[in-house]
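Entry 14. Structure prediction run on the chain below.
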Amino acid sequence: MSKVHVSATVNGDATEFLCDRGASLLDVLRDTLDLTGSKEGCGSGDCGACTVVLDGEMVCSCLVLAAEAQGRSVQTIEGVAEGSVLHPVQRKFLEHAALQCGFCTPGFIIAAKALLDRNPNPTETEVRYWLAGNLCRCTGYDKIVRAVIDAAAELRQERTPA
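Output returned:
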C-alpha cells in the first residue's frame, strides 16, 4: 500500500509525515510524531482520551484519518503549555487535584481549553455539558469542573486591562 504525504501544522509548527491511507490521526500523532499525550481509550470516539483540536474544533483523533490533516492545524496536549509555563487549565487541574491516574487528563484539558477559548465565562452546567464527551473512571468529575471554572476566572482576570 502506498503512503500518503501530509503537510500540517501541529502545535504551531509546520510538520510533514507519511502515513498509510487508513491510519488514524491518533496513530500518527503517537507513533510517527512521538506526541504521546493523546491516549487511545476506546478507539470508537466514546471516551475523549484522544481529543485534539483540528482547525479550532474538538475532535476524537481516533476517528479522524491522518490524511485529513492535510493543510490543517492540529493542537495536542503537548501544545497547550507555552514552553515550561503551564496554561491556567493545566495549573488548576494540579491545584484542584483534578486527576488521579492521568489517562483521561489530556483529553479533559484540551476540551476545557477549547471551551474557555469560546466561552470565557461558562456556568457549571455549561462546563459539565462541554466535558460530557470525556470519561474518567477515577474521579467524581467535581474537581475537574471546579478546576475549569477556576481557570476561567483566572483567564478573565488576565484578559481584563488593569
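The radius of gyration is 16 Å.
Filed with the rest of this week's runs.
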